[in-house]
């Protein structure tokens, strides 16, 4: 009796990798061994950059808040410290949005902290 190697599962495993490699360039999309390495690398980048995206947005928000704060005669660190003392709980995302799209409301928040 011939030895069974479970071809169905092996094909499924290879097909999953090849499906993930769709859109890649050159042999990375149609040669399994090359595609496997490319997909593993891509998944590593994907995992890393999901976390990096959060850091990048926080940096962007801080930059925008700082710009808005300086227009209103204070700095980012002074503003955040006085917000905490005044017990105003607005997160950086909301503050950055106010600074960009509603400068009058942002100025009112800054006035509340003084």
Structure description:
By secondary structure, this protein is mainly α. The protein has one domain: c-terminal domain of poly(a) binding protein (Orthogonal Bundle), CATH 1.10.1900. It is 75% helix and 0% strand. The chain is rod-shaped, with a radius of gyration of 26 Å. The termini are far apart.
Global structural class: mainly alpha
Order of helices and strands: HHHHH
The rough form would be described as rod-shaped
How helix-rich are the residues, as a percent range?
Answer: over 70%
Query: What fold name stands as the CATH topology?
Result: c-terminal domain of poly(a) binding protein
Largest sheet features: none
Q: In the CATH hierarchy, what is the superfamily?
A: Ribosomal protein L20, C-terminal domain
Question: How much of the sequence is in beta strands?
Answer: under 5%
The CATH class: Mainly Alpha
Instruction: Count up the helices.
Output: 5
The end-to-end span amounts to: 86 Å
Q: Flag low-confidence runs.
A: none
- What is the typical, i.e. mean, pLDDT? 94
Q: In the CATH hierarchy, what is the architecture at level 2?
A: Orthogonal Bundle
Cα gyration radius (Å): 26 Å
Return the domain count. 1
> Total number of β-strand segments?
0
């Amino acid at each position: 009796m011939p030895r069974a190697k479970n071809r169905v599962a092996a094909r499924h495993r290879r097909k999953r990798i090849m499906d993930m490699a769709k859109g890649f360039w050159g042999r990375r999309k149609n040669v399994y061994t090359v595609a496997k390495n490319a997909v593993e690398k891509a998944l590593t980048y994907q995992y890393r950059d999901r976390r990096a995206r959060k850091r990048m947005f926080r940096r962007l928000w801080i930059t925008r808040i700082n710009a808005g704060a300086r227009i209103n005669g204070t700095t980012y660190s002074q503003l955040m410290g006085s917000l905490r003392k005044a017990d105003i709980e607005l997160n950086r995302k909301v503050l950055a949005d106010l600074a960009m799209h509603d400068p009058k409301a942002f100025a009112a928040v800054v006035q509340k902290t003084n």
